[in-house]
Amino acid sequence: MKTLRGLTFLGGLVVLLFAFGFIYRLPFAAAIWPWEDGRYSYLFVGSILAAVSAAMLWVGWSGEFGALPAGSLNIFVIALTTSIYFFKLASQGRSDMTLFGILAAISALASLAAFFWSLKIPLKETRPMPKPVKISFGIFIASLFAAGGALILGAPIFPWALNPDSSVVFGCIFIGDAFYFLYGMFRPNWHNALGQLLSFLAYDLVLIVPFVGLLDTIEPGRFINLVVYTAVLIYSGGLAVYYLFIDPQTRFGA
C-alpha cells in the first residue's frame, strides 16, 4: 500500500504539471488537446486537471483509498462519454479522432476497474458529512447535470465562445463531475466530501482571478453567464475554505 500511495502522489504531481501546462498554454500540454482552442478553454482544462491533481495528492498523502470510488466514477463517466463522442467524430470522416476515442475508452476501463477495486476498501474516517455540505452537493449535482446537458446540446452558457467540439467535451466533464458529488451524497462520510471540496477549491483558484478580470471586457450577451459562473466559484470556494481550514470539526488536523 505504501508503494501505491507513492505512485498516486507522483501521479498527482504529473497531472498538476499538465494543469500548469494548460493554464499557461505551454506546447507540451496544448499538443495533447484534440483541436486548436482559445485561451479560456485551455484555462478551463487546466482548472479541471488541477482539481484532479488536488484529490490525487490528498489520497496519496493520506492513504485514504476508500475515497477513490468517487473520483474513479467521475473519470469513468468523462472517459466513457468523450470516447463515444470521439468515435462519432471519427465515423464522420475525422479519422484523427480515432486515437482519442481509443485512449478515452482505455481510460474508462481503467477507471471502472479502479472503482470496483477501491469500493471494497473501508474509509478510515467516521465523521459524517456536515449537513450544509450535503445540501450544497445536491445543488452542485443539479447544476452540473443541467449545465453539462446544455453544453452537450451546444447552448452558449459559458462566459466565452466555445469551439462546438469543446462544448460537448466540457459538457461530458460536467456530467462526470456531477457523479463525483453524487457518490458523496449516497455515502455521506466526511472523506467523501473532503476530496470533492479540495478539487473544487483548486478549480476555483485557477478560474476566479481570470473570471473577475473578464468583467471589464465581457460581451454584453455573456455578462449574466459570467456573473452566475463567478458566483458559483465564490460560493464553492468559500464552502471549501470554511470546512477544510476553519470549522473545528472538519478542518485539517481536527
Can you describe what's shown?
This protein is mostly helical. The chain has one domain. Helices cover 74% and strands 0% of the residues. It has helices at 2-23, 27-30, 39-62, 68-91, 97-118, 131-152, 164-186, 191-214, 223-246. The longest helix is centred in the first third of the chain and has 24 residues, at 39-62. The two termini are 24 Å apart. The model has no long low-confidence stretch (mean pLDDT 95).
Write the layout of secondary structure elements.
Elements: H1 2-23, H2 27-30, H3 39-62, H4 68-91, H5 97-118, H6 131-152, H7 164-186, H8 191-214, H9 223-246
Helix pairs in contact: 1-3, 3-8, 4-5, 4-7, 6-7, 8-9
What's this, in brief?
This protein has 254 residues and is mostly helical. It has helices at residues 2-23, 27-30, 39-62, 68-91, 97-118, 131-152, 164-186, 191-214, 223-246.
Count of alpha and pi helical runs: 9
Let me know the average pLDDT: 95
3D shape: globular
Element string (H = helix, E = strand): HHHHHHHHH
- Low-confidence runs: none
The helix-and-strand class reads mainly alpha
Please summarize the sheet with the most strands.
none
- End-to-end separation: 24 Å
Question: Which key phrases capture this entry?
Answer:
254 residues; 9 helices; mainly alpha; 0% strand
